[in-house]
């Protein structure tokens, strides 16, 4: 049984929403992830957001953040440690590699990232350029001249 359906009727009265349509289609194709590592997406104001990723056991050099074509990718993997003085009797802190991707909305920029107390905080802000802000269009009070 296929779960494919057309989104064309939703976009019949819209212009320039091709990317929006692509987001829906990619969400339908997206497989459910493993849920590792857990993360939160927080809103701290009208234009301020934060992604908090539980990165217990990872250090800054183990993590990589990249933004490309509106997609924020966070990857983590433990580097080989040559500390032979430690023998684990139980190793419950997961240290497996991961890769998370977040599609950023238009005009969202990554402002800062920091690792503190096992949490990776990624601060995002919406910066709307002047040309993208709403503009009032004046209506000419004169009637058009009709030629006869």
From TrEMBL:
Pfam families, alphabetized: HSP20 (PF00011)
Recorded coiled-coil stretches: none
Keywords: Stress response
Domain SHSP span(s) in chain numbering: 30-142
Domain of life: Bacteria
Gene3D superfamilies: 2.60.40.790
InterPro entries (alphabetical): A-crystallin/Hsp20_dom (IPR002068), ACD_IbpA/B (IPR037913), HSP20-like_chaperone (IPR008978)
Assigned protein family: Belongs to the small heat shock protein (HSP20) family.
Protein name: 16 kDa heat shock protein A
UniProt source species: Metapseudomonas furukawaii
